[in-house]
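pinned: reference chain
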Amino acid sequence: MAQISREQLAPLHEIIKITVAPADYNPAFEKSLKTYAKTANIPGFRKGMVPIGVIKRMHGSAVFTEEVLKTIETELTKYVQAENISYLGQPIPQDDNDPGTFNYNEGKEYSFSFEIGLKPEFSLPDFATLPTTIHLVSANDEMVEEEINRMQQKLGNMTEPESVSREEEVLNVGFEPCDEAGIVEEGSSPKENSLLLSYFSEKVRSELMGKKKDDTLVLQLSTAFEDKERDWVASDLALDKNNSEDMSKYFLLKINKIGFVEKKELNEEFFKEALPGKEILTEADFRSEIRTQIEAYWKHQAQHLLEHEVFHILSEDIKMEFPETFLRKWLLLSNENKQTAEDIEKEFPAFLNQLRWTLVSNEIATGNSIQVSREEIMDSLRQQLMGYFGSMNMGGNYDWLDSYVERMMSDEKQVESAYQRVFSSKVLACAASQVKPTENFITAPEFLALQEKHNHK
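pinned: its C-alpha cells
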C-alpha cells in the first residue's frame, strides 16, 4: 500500500509525497506487458505469441516508467478524494521528481512529491443584512408623452416638403470643407449625414428656414450646433471636439433632401399598430399601458443595477487568503510558457478577483441548487445571435436560427461562454432576490448617470 505524507510549505500551500512499493506497481506492469505481447508485431514471432521476456527486453523500461507514473497519479487522486481536499488549479510535480531513476530490474520504492494549493475557507454573508439600494424611476407624464410621440413618429408617414419650415424636419445634408466665403477646398468630397433641424443652433435654424433642396449654407462647427450634437457631428467628421482649431473650421452645408414625418393620429388604428395583441380602444387606456411599460422597463433596469451592486459586495468584500506563490507557479506552467512571469504578475490581481468571484458564485450555486440546462445555454446563444442580427432586415424569417444555434452547440468555447453568462446571471439573480434593499426614487437622468458610473469595460 502506498505511503503518503503531507507537509505545509506556507498557509494553504502544501507538499504531498507519494511513495509506491513493488506491490503497488508490479501487478499493473505485468498486466501491461501481457497486453503488449498480445498485440505486438515483432519479426520472427507470430502476432500474440511473443514471449514476455522479449517484450520486457525491448519495451520494458518504457512500459515500467509509464505504469509507475500511473500508479503514483492514481494514489494521489485516491488520497485527495479520501481526504476531501479542495484544491486550486492542479497539483504540480516537484522539479526533483525524476522518472529516469525507474528501473524494472530493481524492486524498490519510488517517491514523487507534488505541490498543492488549497482552497481558502470563507463564509457567505447573510444576504438580508447587506447594505443595498434599489433605485426606482417612476414614469411621469413627460416620459409618457415623449414615448407616445416617438411611436407616432416611428409609425408615421415620411413626406418630402419643398422647403424647410419646421424644427421636426430631417435634413439629409453634405458637409464639405471650405473657407469663410464658402470656397470649397480643392479635391475635397462631401461627408453626408442626416440631422434634425432642432440639432442646429438657434441662429443657424433661422438661416435654414425657407431653404430648399440643393441650397447651401456656410457654417462653423463651433457655433452651428447645440453642445451635445456638436460632439458627435465633429466625431463623424473625424475632428477633435476639444481642439479649438478643428472647431473653428468652416463647412459648406448642402441640403440634399428634406424629410418630415407626419405623426400618426391617436386613434384605435394606431393603438393596434403600436401595441399589437393589446385590446386598447381609448387614448386613456393607451396612455395607461405606455406608463406601465415604461415603469416595467425601469424596474428591469433597477434590478440589473441592484444585481451589479450585489456582485461588487460579494466579489470585493468577502475576504479570502490565497496560496499566491503556488498560483503564480501554476499559472506559469499551465500556460506552457506562452506567458512570462512578468505577464502573469501584471494580470495577477485581476486573476485573484476572478478566482474570488468563482469561489463565491460556486458556493451560492451549491447552496441554492442552481444548475444550467442545455435549453438555457441554447437560449443564450439564440439571444446573442439576435443581438448581432436584430437590427438587420430579415423579413421576419428566422427559420435559420435554430439550426445555427445547433451548430454553435458543437463549439466548446461558445458553449462554455454561454454557460458562464447564464450561470452568473442565475447566481446574481438568486443573491439579489434575498437582499432587502432600501428604495430610492430618482429621475431617469440620475439613473442613467448611476449606470454610467457602474459600467465596466
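why pinned: The CA atoms of residues 335 and 344 lie 10 Å apart. The chain has 15 helices and eleven strands.
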